[in-house]
Design goal:
Elements (H helix, E strand, L loop, with lengths): L1 H40 L2 E10 L2 E3 L2 E4 L3 E10 L2 E10 L6 E14 L2 E11 L10 E11 L6 E7 L5 E9 L2 E3 L2 E3 L2 E7 L8 H4 L5
Antiparallel strand pairs: 1-4, 2-3, 4-5, 5-6, 6-7, 7-8, 8-9, 9-10, 10-13, 11-12
Length: 206
């Protein structure tokens, strides 16, 4: 009787241990599968946008009165994206006046969206000297609400040597096959003003 009881206890312990090991193995497999699904969902996408404009408006300031052509290409994987953007003057200068490189990292916490990044500004046709390039770091916050409020802060630590804070709201309305997106923004900055950056974006004479 005592021997049978001991045997029963031993079998119960072994069975329980085997069940725990099996449960842990399944849990580990589920985590690996979930990780693989997350990685597979992080597909790499490439997008391109371009347009012609009558003027070059940068953060509310008119930097070029001549017509310009602007375009950029962005490669994104998950919350990380890298992009190249350029401005080509179609006026008297008729040349590439600016080429920017941006690295952006974004993440969402429910309805809260955040991002940080780095922008390298280059001006290929500006006369040689320190005015040929500048750089910024930035951080942004936006909310998934009806008016899509957002705020971004930029710090230029090279030629611009200033801080820019931009707050905006917008709302999209579908009208048939079209989408109307009215928006309003406010820009605050520290010295020097964005107007001072015009001299870095003006092309050199031929």
């Amino acid at each position: 009787m005592n021997c049978k009881f001991k045997l029963f206890v031993l079998c119960s312990v072994l069975t329980g241990g085997l069940f725990v090991l099996t449960e842990k193995a399944v849990s580990s497999d589920d985590k690996i599968k979930e990780l693989e699904e997350r990685i597979s969902s992080m597909e790499t996408s490439i997008s391109y946008d371009a347009g012609a404009y009558t003027k070059y408006i940068w953060r509310g300031w008119n930097l070029f009165d001549d017509p310009v052509y602007q375009g950029g290409i962005t490669m994104q994987q998950g919350g990380i994206s890298a992009s190249i953007w350029g401005n080509y003057s179609l006026g008297n200068s008729d040349r590439l006046t600016e080429l920017d490189f941006t690295l952006d990292i974004s993440h969402s916490f429910g309805a809260i969206n955040t991002n940080i990044g780095y922008i390298k500004y280059t001006f290929p046709n500006v006369a040689s000297g320190p005015g040929r390039e500048s750089a910024e770091i930035y951080a942004g916050l936006s909310l998934d609400l009806l008016t899509a409020p957002s705020v971004s802060a930029y710090y230029d630590f090279e030629q611009g040597d200033g801080t820019y804070i931009e707050a905006s709201i917008s709302h999209s309305v579908e009208y048939g096959a079209f989408e109307i997106s009215p928006s309003m923004a406010c820009l605050l900055y520290t010295s020097p003003s964005p107007r001072d950056r015009t001299r870095y974006r003006m092309p050199s004479s031929a």
